[in-house]
């Protein structure tokens, strides 16, 4: 395309109000997401399923040896949901609820949010998702299983 043609298209776009600027604060969504601290578990009897004997290292894994009746159990601590998607610029409130586990020392990387969640308590964390990327929500006591992802999509 000739140089004059490009300049004309640019001028037309500017006069029509077309802009490449990022969405304004008015375009941002208010997001309220409930995040639970849970402990899915299961068990079996050694007569039906052999006791596995070991799990990977880390505070998030729980393996109880067979009791006097031969029943054994396995559990892990996790955040639910494990992935949270928001857009850059959104006003985000994460409402953490402690269901299982006595204490969850928690950090949201990249957003300088740290708190302790206890069973039966609610912690609300609010912030503007002002930087795109993938950020971990980590419980230090139950790592590596209790890690969720906060995914902030860049402005379009």
Describe the structure.
By secondary structure, the protein is mainly beta. The chain has a domain at 23-39 and 77-153: Cupredoxins -  blue copper proteins (Immunoglobulin-like), CATH 2.60.40.420. The chain has 1 helix and 12 strands, in the order αββββββββββββ. Strands 6-12-11-8-9 form a 5-stranded mixed beta sheet, with no helix packed on it. The longest helix is centred in the first third of the chain and has 13 residues, at 3-15. The two termini are 27 Å apart. Mean pLDDT is 87; it is low at 1-23.
In brief:
The chain has 156 residues and is mainly β. It contains 1 helix and 12 strands, in the order αββββββββββββ.
Topology:
Elements: H1 3-15, E1 30-38, E2 41-45, E3 61-64, E4 71-76, E5 78-80, E6 83-87, E7 91-98, E8 103-108, E9 113-118, E10 122-128, E11 133-139, E12 147-153
Main sheet summary: 5 strands, mixed
Number of strands: 12
Query: Strands across the major sheet, in which order?
Result: 6-12-11-8-9
Mean pLDDT value = 87
Number of helices: 1
- The CATH topology of the domain at 23-39 and 77-153, please? Immunoglobulin-like
| Computed structural class | mainly beta
Unreliable spans: 1-23
Helix content: under 10%
CATH-wise, what's the superfamily of the domain at 23-39 and 77-153? Cupredoxins -  blue copper proteins
Q: Nearest-angstrom radius of gyration?
A: 24 Å
The CATH C-level name of the domain at 23-39 and 77-153 is: Mainly Beta
Provide the CATH architecture of the domain at 23-39 and 77-153. Sandwich
User: What percent of residues are in strands?
Assistant: over 45%
Query: Which shape, going by the Cα principal axes?
Result: elongated
For the termini, the CA-CA separation is 27 Å
Order of helices and strands: HEEEEEEEEEEEE
């Amino acid at each position: 395309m000739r140089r004059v043609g490009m300049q004309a298209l640019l001028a037309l776009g500017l006069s029509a109000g077309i802009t490449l600027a990022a969405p304004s604060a008015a375009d941002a969504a208010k997001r309220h997401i409930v995040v639970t601290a849970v402990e899915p578990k299961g068990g079996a009897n050694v007569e039906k399923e052999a006791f596995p004997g070991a799990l990977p290292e880390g505070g998030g894994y729980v393996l109880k040896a067979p009791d006097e009746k031969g029943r054994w159990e396995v559990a892990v601590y996790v955040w639910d949901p494990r992935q949270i998607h928001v857009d850059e610029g959104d006003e985000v409130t994460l409402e953490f609820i402690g269901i299982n586990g006595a204490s969850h020392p928690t950090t949201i990387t990249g957003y300088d949010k740290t708190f302790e969640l206890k069973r039966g308590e609610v912690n609300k964390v609010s912030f503007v998702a002002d930087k795109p990327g993938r950020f971990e929500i980590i419980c230090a006591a139950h790592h590596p299983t209790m890690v969720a992802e906060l995914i902030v999509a860049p402005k379009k």
